[in-house]
Amino acid sequence: MKLENTQVQMRKGILEFCILEIIARGEAYASDMLEELTSARMIVVEGTLYPLLTRLKNAGLLDYVWKESTSGPPRKYYTLTTDGRQFLEELRDTWEEMATSVGIIRKGRPGPPAS
Predict the structure, then answer these.
(1) Do the beta carbons of residue 52 and residue 28 sit within 8 Å?
(2) Within 10 Å of residue 28's Cβ, how many Cβ atoms?
(3) Is there a domain that residue 59 lies in?
(4) Gyration radius of the chain's alpha carbons
(5) What is the mean pLDDT of residues 2-7?
(6) Which stretches make up the Transcription regulator PadR N-terminal domain (predicted)?
């Protein structure tokens, strides 16, 4: 088993969450998202980002507007829909639960019994 494959799968699993977090702060342009993800050491390429944005849009979680650019063609800026904000809130809850669970496991402490 290659470490690289597991790392890629872990990144893919949280990429959607990270993209929604970026867009939640305000209108976001895809290139700016790529730059922020890369600076946070989330290695993402356009070929991964654009299909994911399309899928999120088709699911009703994102919307976009075209805006004129001073340096080229119009740009597509993404925003969260009401459903997208609710979805992100639920992902945040899931993230907190998972982070807590992983922390417990890594420290070797038993958690409360399952209900």
Answers:
(1) no
(2) 21
(3) yes
(4) 17
(5) 88
(6) 19-90
